[in-house]
Automatic annotation (TrEMBL):
Keywords: Acyltransferase, Transferase. Belongs to the thiolase-like superfamily. Thiolase family. Residues 5-250 form the Thiolase N-terminal domain. Coiled coil: none annotated. InterPro entries: Thiolase (IPR002155), Thiolase-like (IPR016039), Thiolase_C (IPR020617), Thiolase_CS (IPR020613), Thiolase_N (IPR020616). This is Thiolase family protein. Gene3D superfamilies: 3.40.47.10. Residues 258-379 form the Thiolase C-terminal domain.
Amino acid sequence: MRDAVIVEAVRTPIGKRGGSLAGVHPADLSATVLEALAERTAVDPGLVDDVVWGCVSQAGEQTFDIARTAVLSAGWPESVPGTTVDRQCGSSQQAVHFAAAGVVAGHYDLVVAGGVESMSRVPMGSAAGEQSPLGLRYAARYSAEFPSQGLGAETIAERWGLSRAQLDEYALQSHARAAAAVDAGAYQEQLVEVTTPDGEKVSVDEGIRRGGTLERLATLPTPFREDGVVHAGNASQISDGAAAVLMTSSETAARLGLTPLARIHSVALAGSDPNIMLTGPIPATEKVLRRAGLSISDIGTFEVNEAFASVVLAWLAETGADPATLNPVGGAIALGHPLGGSGARLMTTMVHHMRAHGIRYGLQTMCEGGGQANATILELV
């Protein structure tokens, strides 16, 4: 049976909203990581069977199948196609799942999976405009009011008994771990420098804050509930960025002289309450572990997207995972969350962390709009 392996994984730095990457078209951000994959592997881009690309706000500059636009912007042959995926925040993790399935099925020999989001240029919610995506039947079953992720995060904190201090402590940890990763050069191999239209070279993540305190976080307003616990300091940052992985089978990798980094061991999907929206990683983790025949203690590192600190801490409470192995080099609270690019960003970070520390199994999961989650287990090769 064919397998699916990752032979390279790269990402751009993650820019803050209105920051250094705000002037870069999302297709150009995407092209930057595509170019890097080809350069680092010396693979002829003409051999790539498809580019499967995640993007959430498919409006304005992110419409017209941005995957295909990215391929052409990278200067790759016109023979290389691309398709764009929307599974909300998990879009590029889903792109990896689709790409892996295509490799295993024999539909692809060489494929790129990844994603992008420029939240500076295409604001969150742009695709819907003034119209609600919820129809009468959805409204009859749930509510005509569009679900709020912020209120979902507040509900999770309430249900799992998480205090504001606990959320803020976790947020400070995310920044501290990310800062330590920068100082140790842990991101160096995965990062691709971006050149902006005005010639600026961007090579560092912009969201990491050093020296934060609980006292400072305690002054921030809680916009979702007047007496709430969720605020900008313990939630993911609005960001710009792209990430990509090059995938093939072990057989094709050997034929092309490529070195596999990790194998897609198991994948799973789960649905959950669409109003709370953010609890899906809990059943998705249970499902992927069951499918893989592994236990939580078999996993050496976890990437659980830090959409909100309450999401990650609830997941931790339910799974019993070792906190030291959870987002060990920081997460979206510190780095940022460029929606459609985050799934591939987490996977890129996890692959490089596994390689650096000889970790056999890594597990990634993300909460997603509509009450969903992807989960992926990688095995070091």
